[in-house]
Amino acid sequence: MPGRAGALRQVGVVSQSSNPAENDFTSPDWAVVDLLPSVPTVSTRGPVRQSVVGDARVGDRVCQQGISSGWRCGVVRAVTPNRILTDIKSRPGDSGGPLMRLSDGAAVGIATEATDDRVPATRQATMYVSLRDVLARAGGGLRLATTNKGGARVDPRRAVAAEEIAVFTSEPAVMPTAPTTVVN
């Protein structure tokens, strides 16, 4: 359990980061974490399998997978070149989780910030950084993994070696020892 001595362990190393200035809410906040080979990298949560990277559009029905709040769905309310705003209510710990469009399963964003419980329920919102923007800023060496190094499709129901997939997160490369799944 987080908060107790020895509860956290290193799972990887940050190899690239946007490293925005403190309190800069306009710049993307992302990092690439190179996972250690011993870390499982597949989640079986949620009914949508990401197959492509897409661009969010206002009105899209989308769902996010968060480690704290689980699978939640909503609607895209606003889009800028590098940000996506939805009416999904997230919780602390959901940062770094994927945002998927329901119509085609496209991965469109990464959760970065959300309103807190002091905001009325009718105004709850979560902000995401555009996945396409993150990939572009990372220099073209990253992709959404749908196949392993040998060209076989990655089966999200089984663990794969860490080097087979790209992992995107806005959280530090540390996690509780209890969960067996790393990728949200």
UniProtKB/TrEMBL annotation:
Chain intervals with Polar residues compositional bias: 13-25
Specify where the region named Disordered lies, as residue ranges.
1-25
InterPro entries recorded: Peptidase_S1_PA, Peptidase_S1_PA_chymotrypsin
Question: What's the name of the protein?
Answer: Trypsin-like peptidase domain-containing protein
Q: Which organism is it from?
A: Tsukamurella conjunctivitidis
